[in-house]
Each structure stands twice: as structure tokens, then as C-alpha cells.
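Risk register update: the risk that structure generation would not scale has been downgraded. Supporting records follow, first protein first.
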Amino acid sequence: MNIKKDILWRVYLVYIVICLGGFLILFKAFSIRYFETLEDGRSWVEYDREVRKTKQEREIEPMRGNIYAADGNVLATSYPVYEIRFDPMAAKDDTFDYYIDTLAYTLSKYFKKRSKAQEKQRLLNAKVEGNRYLLINRRVTYPQLKAVKQFPLFKKGTFAGGIIVIQKNKRIKPFNRLAHRTIGYVRQGVAVGLEGYYDSLLSGVPGRRWEQKVAGGKWIPINDENIVDPVPGSDLYTTLDTYIQDIADNALAKTMMKHKADHGSVIVMEVATGEVKALANLAKTENGDYFESYNFAIGEGTEPGSTMKLMSTLALLEDGFMDLHDSIDVGNGSAVFYDKVLRDSDKKSRGKLSMRDAFAKSSNVYFAKALDSAFRQRPHEYIKYLRQAGLHNRTGVDIKGEPLPFIKDPSYTDHKDKKAWTGITLPWMSIGYELKISPIQMLNLYNAIANGGKLMRPYLVSKIVQEGNTITEFEPRVLSEHICSKKVQEKLEDLLILPIENEKGTARNIKNNHFKIAGKTSTCKIAKRGSYSKVYQASFAGYFPADDPIYSCIVVVNRPTASGYYGGIVAAPVFKEIAEKVYARKILAEHHIGNLVKADHFPYVKSGKKEDVESLCDAYGLDHQIFTNKDWVKPFSENGLLKVDDRSVINTLVPNVRGLALKDAMYLLENQGLKVKITGKQVGKVRQQSISPGVKARNGLVIELVVS
């Protein structure tokens, strides 16, 4: 028992001693920090505050991710630009004196800005004046930086040699103004376009390092090591097609200049998926040029005008109130609703018109009378059809700035408010007034009709890639399986051909003999200060080819002031140019390959890697058989079937590369240790090789390839 007490007493004693020791350490630290002073009289607290002002852990800007088009072209990229500074106080005096002559000579010879004597004098002056941030060169490339880092004294690094490297990432758009506003930018707190919408992914994660503040308020790294390395931003792969984008941009620019319009936009979308293939916006600048200053296609809600007649027709047909051949008497082309007169722009429309004729001619009176008769007592039913078609909501396109559509509520009847539902709201809404919809929202309606009634979410980014690995892939998203019945959708398809194919159609000028276009024109007066003046918005929305829709497109041109203002004259020709060029370049090319296959005439397929040949066959639906497990194969056609046989490659022997694409040939030969010399073109197929296949391959042996 006494032993136990003795042990406990010892433990308690040790515990008390440790606690007292800890207390003394804390007390000493506290007294040093707050009561003891340095030789110059400053307290440690004051010293710490001053150190924090001159030495801090600061951020390193990461490399921003790239933005790519669907065809692989780079739409936006960052590249590093380096600023070189020099701290003459970093090196010891004897080291500085030893290297100053050779450093001055090297700087003079490399940058060719000053003589050796001038460079030496600058370095000496910086040393005497204590300038720790002497500018050597404001802008050097990475290869130049590597060379500069090997200069005398500089090769000792930041801490011992005084070289200061400041990386600045410069953002460029290789295609200049092409899709400028869609790609967007982030600067000074303003974030627009894809750059703005995906900023958090593109911007990456900043690194951190210790830096010291020097004269002039500049911060320089204390050493060459980072506390945390920056993580580069993710890359975006968009749905944009640079070929279609270029066509859309040029076609819009031509009509803007011809008609001296204020601003305009074009969207081209893939019908089946909702992928946006082109998005062009142009606005007149102060000097009369045109530039992408705002994304009107996404962000501008306007009264759409007669393109809205598609929606009105959908409601009339779906409700069962009218059918395609039902007629209405439009009189002399005008009608009175309460105290307002509504007129047809086509003064030739008289008497009875069927729905087909009214749609082809774009009769305002017909659709205003039809909707007023059908829905005057039940306007909520009409709004229900708009909601079914998705016109009550944003499309959800992945870019900032899309407004909520403005559609009046029949329940709101406070006539003191401009938002109120009145007796003329329904007839005016039937022809695209008293509501506001953006071009992307209107196009989505037309795209749904082209897509068998299926409403898609438009989107601009197909995948996000981080350091070569796909982290997110975006698939087409269906917003509604059916915006109307199949029967009504087919009737609308039939109607949408009429403005182009009918001899009195408002867009008959864009008819062509190669394929059919479906769509609707609009010539809409623009409201200014509550009244409508002779200022117009011309537009055309539709899709092509009408028989088997692949692309939908909308063209909107605001305030044309020369050479006409009608939608058929101003906007429809833009649509036609886009449709014809895209059809010729993309659709016909794929159709041609398909016809070759159907005719049992196979396109020539080069020898190459088995996986590449299989991918090509799958992509174009080529019937094929594989007769080998080898990586390298030789395709040939036989009896309407593409057969793929072994193309043997044996290690240590020179392979047969005739018929291979140059890149595949080089891969095989260099893997055998051979050095390749190319004669002829730098891309194409290998026609001849200077060393016969089967010869023993020796490391460093030179083989010449003839490429055509």
C-alpha cells in the first residue's frame, strides 16, 4: 500500500513539474512577444507586422484552359508571356563584380537594345540605387526564357543570381472576331459568353509562393520553390463548327452592310441533338463597322413578329378549332379589334383565305381573327399551348444572359399596367406582338417541329477535359418529348414549306432546285416609347433539308435602313446562303459516301491500325470482316464487302509501309530505331520506301520515304 502511494506521489510530482514548465514556456513567449524589444526599440509584434507588409504568401496565376470547336480548332487559348527583371542585391558583391561584364555583353548581344557599355551602366546604377526590380525585357517567349536563364549570373537562379521571372498569361482567339461574343471574356469583374459561364472550370486553381515587397511596391519571389504549384484550368470542347460559324458570320455581315442595319444575329443548331453549330452576332460601331459587341441571339428579348404564327397555328390545330383548309374572310386586308386597326402588310390579300394560303402569305388578319374567335373566352388555353411548347421558360442554353420570355398573364387585368391583359392582347399576340422572346427561344420551337415534336435543350459545350482526361461529357437533353400531337406536327411541317415553295410565299426568293427549305419570315415593327414607328426587325426561322431536317437556323436583323426591310428580302437570303453552303459541304459529302456503300462501291480505305479502320467502317456503316488479331492491317474490297487482313510487322525487320498514311509509317519505322527522311509531300500516303521490307533493322539506319 505504501509502495502504491509512493508511486502516485512521484507521478503527481512529475505532472506538476511538466505543467509548470509548460506554463513558464508560454509565459516566456508571451513576454518576448509583447514586452521585450529589439535593438532599435521595436517590439516583436511591431516587427511581425512589418515583416507581413514586406513578405507574404502570394498567389501564382494558373494557366487558363483552352476552348475548342467541335472540329478540333482552337477558339481561345492562353500562352505564357514572361517579363524578366533583375535584383542586383541578390548576388554577393564579389559575384556581381565577377559576372557584370559577361552579363552585360550577353544581354546586349541577345536583345540588341543597348550596347555592352550601356547595359553594364544600367546594372551598376541599379546596384548603387538599390533598385531590386530592374527591367531586363518586358516580353519574352518560353524558348527565349530558357536561353535567358542560362546567361552568366542568371543561371544561379532567383536567390543567388537575381533573375526574376514574372509569368503573365495572355488570352488570344486564333479566329479573331469569329464567335467572339459567344466565346466571351472575363475581365475587370465582367464575365460573358462561355468564358464567363464556365469561368470556375477554365480558371484553374492558383498556386502559392513566398514573395518579398521591394522598392516601388513590387513583389518578387524569395526563392525558386513554390509552396503550392498552380493547377491549370480545364479545357472546353464546344459544339461549334468553325466552317458553319464562318459561313454564318460572313453571310450576316454582308446583309448588315447591304441594308445598313443596326444589329443582327444568326443561330444554327443541329436538329436531333440541340447542339449549337454557329452563333453569330454583329452590331454597328460608331465608325460604321460591324463587331460582336453583344450576344443578341441569346440575350435580346424582342417582339418576334410573324415567326410567332407557327405557334398560333399549332394552338389552332391542336385545339381542333381549325384545320389547314379552313377559310376566313380577311376582307380588304384589315380588321378592327376594339379601337385598334390591324392590317396585312401584303395589300393584295383579299376575301377568303385558307390557313395554307394565309400561312404562305403571312396574313396578320387571318391569324388575329382565328385566335380571337378560338380563345377570346378562354385565353388561358392559348397560354397553355405556349407553355407546352416551352415558350414560357428559358431554354437553359449554357451561356449567360438568356432572359425569361415575357408572356402576359390573362389573370392580370390592371389596365394601368403595360403588363396587363387587354382586349387586343390575344389578336396582337397571335402575330408576334405584346410578348418578348429571344432568338434562341424562337429557334427552339422551330427545331422541335423539325425534330418530330421533340423539344431539345440547346447547348454549346460537349465535354470538359482536365489534363487530357474527360471529367464531364454532356449528352443531348430532351426538354419535352412532344410539344404537340404527331398529327399536328406533320401538318406544321407541311405548312412551313409553303412560304418558300408557294408562288405567293413571302420567302419564294430563296427557293432552290437542290433541296427544300422550311421556314417562316417575319417583318415586325419595333416599339419605341410605347408606339410603333417605321422601324423594323426582319427575321427568318426554319430548317433544312425540309424532307429530312438536319439543321435549324434563325436569322434576325434589327433596324435595316436601306434596300428593303421585309424578312423575305433581308433575313431569308442569309438563311439561304448558310443552308446552301452547309448542304454542299457537309450533307452532300456524307450522302455521297452513303451512296457509294449502297452501290457496293467502297471508298478507298488506307492500310493502318486495326482500331482506326474499324472506327471508319462503323462511322460510315461499311460492312466489313476482320481476319486478323494483329494491330496493323490491310483493307481490301471483295464482293461488296470490306475485308481486313493482316499486315505483318516483325520486330527487328524493316516493315512494309507502302500504302500507309505517313504518320503511321513514321510510327512503325521509328519504333524499329530507323531514321526517316521524307521526299515529296509532308502529308499523305507512302508510295515508295528506300529499304526493302524484311531487311534487318539497325538502330540509326536512314530510310527514305516517297509520299504523295
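Supporting record for the second protein:
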Amino acid sequence: MASVRLALFSCLFVTLSLVWGPPLLVAGAIADARPHGAGTSQGSATGYGSNEVELRLEVANSSGQLIPARAQVIGADGRAYPRGPDPGLMSHSSVGGYFYVDGRATLEVPPGLTRVTISRGFEYSPVSLYVPLQGDSTLRVTLQRFATLPARGWYGGDLHSHARHEPLDYTLTPEQVKVVAEAEGLSVLHVLDNGWQFTGTPHALSDSTTLLYCSYEHRNQTCGHVSLPGLRSPVSTGCCLNPAPPYPMILDLNAQVHAQGGGLTVLAHPHTTDDYDLLSAWPGAGLGRELPVLAALGGLDALDVASNSNNPNLDTAEWFDLLSAGLAVPPSAGTDAVLDWYAQPPPGGWRVYTREAGSGTLAYDSWLTALAAGHSFITNFPLVPEFTVGESGMGDSLEVAGDSLIAPVHLETSCAIGLRSVALVADGQEVWSRNFVTWPARFGFDTTFQLRVRRPGWVLLRVGGPSSHPALAASPAVAYTNAVRILHDGAPAQLPAATGRLLAEVDRFEGLVSSRCDWPVPWQRDTVLARIQRARRFYAQPFQSPPAGFALLSPPPGDSAVSSLLWSSAVDPDVGDRVTYTVRVAEDSTLSDSWTRRTVDTIVPEISLESGRWYWWSVEVADLAGNVVHSTPARARFFLSSSADVPVAQLEARPQALPNPSRGAVALRRMDPDVAIYDMAGRRVAESGHGIVSAAGTLVWDGNVGGRLAPPGIYLARSGHSQRLVRIVRLR
């Protein structure tokens, strides 16, 4: 419990009010409030009116040494102080308002009941208390160490922050950045400002307890952004903003960084948005589209599971899928905090702890080695110094011969702001849990028990804390260990549901690559597509059986008065497999020059063919592994009507585009001379005399846009006078 020393002076009597329930907590802290006269400090004073009093803060450790810390002061008016940007205090408006105390700081606040919160990372007990200020006062807070993870080889770091990110609210010095790192209790802070203070080694200000590393963030605006911890020599700062093609890939950057020795490529904020097609602006320009290819081909050293720029901040879905695909992808955390922006949360709100082999000594290279090996957990407050399944710890593997995992599980966890739950997660599903519902909550939990579950592919520990606390920069409090991978005959499991989802992402990435028509040289496009195919083969391993059991239904052989094509669903025996259908319609049974459409449905509601003629049609079914099954072609005469009551003459009067889909010129039948071609953005790309000519009495679009072959996609041919409209599908 906390002890509080109250000081009685002739001019002022100051009392401290401590609140013992959530969200305010004092554990092992000493606070001493006393009046003082005007004086200097390492902070700065910002006045807002004559009615304010001066509050001087002093923060010390249990040895009495003044130390940096993060502070929040909420005045009697309910507002955070300082009231605006303060360069000396490095104040910020995010997470309720906060600033930094470098041992001492002075600020002005309204008189009355004032809440003060002091924190220093996750290994000190934060202090949150109320002080009824009546005049100028000094508040001295002694922070007690809650846990000492470095003694057990654990060091926490933030892989991604910025100190020189335009536009600047503050112009920070390296000395100030180091103060921030110390105040946040970070053993390692990476500042990624692409050349600022970059030396290829830890900054000269680094010491035995705090390492500052200035490096690069490479921004591939199509494939994803990458943090480059341990970078030795400068590299490109970015590429591939739409419409430029996605080359070079992050995979190429990974090879370049590894060739330098020691550096890693960490995919930063991989899930910035759900809008996959947002290519020219943030947050789409930060989306990690290359993730499934990068991971499958061994180019991903770690993944930011937690980041302020993720949406949501903590996003485990893709990481879980990669683990379930048999990939040992270490988790990481990089806040993307911008220290020089006033409205930004602090660095280290999310962080990754790694465990070095030689405990007790902080060394940058061994810290990175531990990160790459996956001896790690990510957290925004709870700590997990121990988690083992059998004899295997975080990032290790465990061989299991039978169809069940039977092993002792040992876990040790703690949290300076309280624990709420612990749970084992296997293959993405909770298999064991323990909740703590009483208050005061547990601050630590240590247990060993026997676990028996159907043999999973991996197991990890999730720890939950409170949903709110003044010292909590991201909510709710939670930690995830890296997984213990379960092997059988030396090989990891590949779960079809997960690999199926990753294959779908590979398909999306391939579609993006294939739709880019401004590749400067063909070999670059071919290189990217070849890598995509290698990734597809990796994820397709669980899917071996071809699809079957489908048949053509409508139209039946002979004359038909319907405009749709219908077939039965295919069945694939592989769990988690999915199928797509490719429909082909042509004038001969070889289907060599066919109208083609790809779909996941079992119907094509409308086709663009010449009415009243005989056609052959067929359907091919492909599964995720690329297994393809073809139907036997059927012959039918289409009148292309949704109703048998519509006269054939009326059907044949409809406008047409032939061939459609197309790769070249397109004949526009039964269209007026004022016809024009529009893309799906509504832009006119061709018109009479500019891409559309009359040949033998038929209007023809040459298939070009601006003198170049039209990109694949959907276009509309529209006649202004009669308002006739035809949709044209352009193929690659």
C-alpha cells in the first residue's frame, strides 16, 4: 500500500486525496506536497491568467534520484494542463493530455482539487492522486519499481516512432527524444526519420539502460510501409505511389537490408484500412498488401500486430492466419507515434518485449536477434516474464507425436494497474481461461497446470487488464505472447481456413498487379507475378482434391427465351476450399474465341450476345489450389430475353458491342453516331473522330484510350441522343 507524507506549513496546509478504486491507483508510491516560492525548474511555466497557482512537480525513484516520467495534470476546471503546446514540457493533447517531467517540471493551474498522474512505462507503479491546491506548491512523487524485467533478460522497445515528421509542432533534439524514451520506460526506441541522426549504429546518447536508434521507414505506397531496425547503410525511402507499378517489392528491400548484416524488415501498421482500392492517399497508401507474399517467401522478419496506425490498433487476425498457415512470424509493436506533433499519443503505448539470451545486459544487436527469433510478447501494460508449454517458450517449437497436445503449461504474468483475465489461445480459439473479477484486482498471477487439447498448430497466452486508467495510452490493457508452435514429424500444421483467407489476399494482390498497365519493362511485372504464384503454391498445399459435382442447368439444349446462364454448385471435398467459376460462350464447340466471365455465383443473369443465334457454352470450376474441372459444352439458341413474351424483333433491336469482352477493337451495333465511350469514373475516353470511326456502316471503337490500349476494366458506350447504353468489358 502507498504511504503519504503530508507537510504542514505556516502559509499553506496541503492535503492529498488518494482514490483506491479504479481508475485511480497508487501502489508503493510516496507523494509529498508542500508550498514553495518562485524558482527555476527544468520544465517551463505557461500562464493562463492571474487566478492560477504554480505547481512544481518532482519525480524520483526509491533511491531519491530524480528521473524522467510522463505526467498528466487535470485542473479543477476539468481541463488538462498545460493548455496548449509547450516545447519545454513537450506537452500533447492526446490520451487526455500529457507532458514530460525531466526530474522536475513547473506549470500553472487553477486553484482547487487537481488530479495528477505520474507514470514511467509498465515496470513502475503509476501514481494517480488528487491534490487540493490553494497556492503555489511542490509535489514530490516517488515511483516504486513494480517489476524488474531486465534482470530476467526482458527489454521493451518501440519499433516505430518519429521525431522529425513534417509539419513540426516541436523541433526536438536527440537529448529530448532520449528523455521521452526514459520517461516511457523504454529500453529501446526507434526513431524513423530517414536520415535524421542516422549512423547505422545506436545513437551516441545511448547508455546501458536506454538505446536510441535512428533509422529509416521505407514507404512502398502500394505494398506497405516497413520499419528498418538495425539498418547499417541508407536505402530508398519509398516508391510505388499509384499509378506507378508495385516494383521493387518489399521482398527486394528485405534482401538488400539482410545483405548489410544485422538489419530487419518489419511490416509496419499492416492493416491501416479495409479499403483495398484506396491507392493514392493515406490510409490506403500504408496498407500492407504484400503481406501474404512477403511472409510466404521468407521476407518478413516481424509484423506490427499493434500500432496506433492499425485499424483497429491491435489487429491479430492476419498474424493468427500466418501462424495457422505454418509460418513462424514474430509479433512486433510500433506505435507510429510522432513526438513532434502536439495531437499524438506517446511512444511505447504499445511495445514489444524481447528476451536476450544473456540476461541482465542490454545490447542492441542481441535485442534484434531475440526479436527475429520470436522470443517476445507485445503489450500495452501487462507483463509476461514466463510462458512455457512443456519445455518450449515463446517463439519455440514443440514436437507432438499423437493427435492431442498433453503438456504442462507454466505462466507468470503481472500488471501494475491490475489483471482482469488470462487465457490460452490455440489456433485462434480460446481453450483455457481464468478471470479475476474482484477489486482490488490481482497484480500478479503464477500457475502451472496440465493442458490437454486436440493437437493444435500453435498456442499462445493472452493477458487482459482494465479498460481504463489515466496511465494507459491504449485501451483496454492487453498482452499477447508469441506462440509456441506445435510440430508433427518436424512440420507445422497448415489449417485450410487460414490458408484459404491468405489465398484470397494473394488473389487480391495479383488482381492489383495485373490491372496496372504502366509497367516500364515487362520483366518487372513478370517477376512480381512469378512471386505471387510461388506464394499461391505455398498456401495451396492443404487443398489437393479437385472440385466436382456440378452440371449445366439452363438454358437446356435447343431454343431458349432466357438471357441468363445457370448451373449447379460444385462441391470441393477439402475443408476451407473455395471455388470460382469461369463461363465461356462461343459460336463453336472448341470455345476458342469465347465470351468469358468469372464469378463466384452459379448464375450469369445477362450476357451480351447476338440474339437468336446458336452458341456453345460451358463452365469451368477452379479451387484455391488451381485444380480445374470443365463441364461438357452444351449448345443452345439464345433469344436473350428475361421474358418469353418479348418479340424476337424487339430483342434483336437492342444495341450490342462485339466482341464483348474484348482485347482489341469493338463494333458498336445499333448505336447512334454521337456514341461515346466512358470509363467507370465517368470520364469520356473516346468519341466520334477520336477513337470511334465508321467502317462499312458500323461504328467501331479502336479499343484505345489516349493513343494506348485501354486498361482492363468496365467501360460504357452511351449514345447521347437515344440514351442507348452498352457495357463493354476489356480484358488484359
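Residues 656 and 669 are 5 Å apart (CA to CA). On this basis the risk owner (M.S.) recommends closing the item.
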